[in-house]
Amino acid sequence: MTYASDLLTTLDTRGYIHQLTDATALDALAAKSVVPGYIGFDPTAPSLHVGSLVQIMLLRRLQQTGHKPIVLMGGGTGKIGDPSFKEESRQLLTEDRLETNVASIRRIFERFLTFGDGPTDAVMLDNADWLDTLEYIPFLREVGQHFSVNRMLSFDSVKLRLDREQSLSFLEFNYMILQAYDFRELSQRAGCRLQMGGSDQWGNIVNGIELARRMDGTEVFGVTTPLITTADGGKMGKTMAGAVWLHEDQLPHFDYWQFWRNTDDRDVGRFLRLFTDLPLNEIAWLEALQGAEINAAKIILATEATALCRGRDAADQAADTARKTFAEGAGGDALPSVTVTGGSMAIVDALVALGFAVSKGEARRLIAGGGARVDGEKVTDAALDIRVTAAPVRVSAGKKHHGLLVAR
Hints:
The chain is built from 18 helices and 13 strands. The protein is an alpha/beta fold.
């Protein structure tokens, strides 16, 4: 479909669109007026991870094409937890923890969006402002009557849990009603006309559209993105050990840069369109590179994606560290390091100290599998004692993790 609005044209050509509600009407609205649009984020941790990045970039594209991003923090819904495709209930967080997480997460959005009071400036709202004051009986009478339990049970996010005979609490079951109410509330409070989200949010978005129409006669719209997977079928970003966090407090700049540098050749073009601001004609040239030349495109992807999330200085420093570490064999200041006293450290202790293994047993298994290197040389002896003198010693675990042993 050919779109008239810059918004839908941009989302389409860069690969963000999976589903649309009434594309023709939304396209016409976006072509003639500023469209406030929102995405919700539950503050379950101090940082979002890379799995949330496509949604953050959606808000960035919204602003870049002349519309108004609304970042909705789930200070209210975060007290319940979204059941969407989760295998178990989330741990309930205290209000103090939620508030701390919201403040921490805001710093991420300030790097991607321009906040302010202008017509296209981003705003951050918290659904606790209205959900915390709801009275149960009036809410059931005014809102609950518009929901069919039969239909709610048919949504994939609920059906999956039930099919697996996994517990779905009444608390979680209410989440979709509250999210629908958020959309209706934002349409009233902020003139919001668009909700965006991942494909797993389609049912929740449609609920909100129908609720706004039934209660207020307001026409609002929805857009979902495809599930972003890697070429080997893996899912980007997970809220478990090894998550690629957007905050430098949880993940060093170099490790974030290296995550993008390790992108599969087949994903380079798609990720450049989704996660950088590079023009499409330049991306087309980069993704056409073949053989070893594709590494240049990966370095550009890593540097541009890191610049958006961590700042240009951090991105350039990480790229320079990688160049020195791998091309020149030197050590970079951005790599994690451990100070060694006594002149030497056992390889298993080094792997644990650098955070590449959680125990000596895991470190030995890493060595046995051929995944440990010292200054580029594969380690075959788990009893190796690394001598550390004036020059730092580079210790690597696989292709992604590198650190330095530095003499005191």
